[in-house]
Amino acid sequence: MSIPMLNKLHMNGYDVLSVNNGPWRVCTEGDRLASFTSREEAMAYAAALPGYRQRSRQVQRQNVS
């Protein structure tokens, strides 16, 4: 029985993570944006993206209506 290992970093408001030494993923809370084979590639991609800040619930409700 093995225990899953999570490596997680933050860059510009994005999560950069890897589970069980798998591919590195750049994500927001609800979306996976890209996958990479190395941590350096994933961090460079996250650094190149504009800063991410989660929208407030009030703004999200206005856009749904």
UniProtKB/TrEMBL annotation:
<protein>
    <submittedName>
        <fullName>DUF2188 domain-containing protein</fullName>
    </submittedName>
</protein>
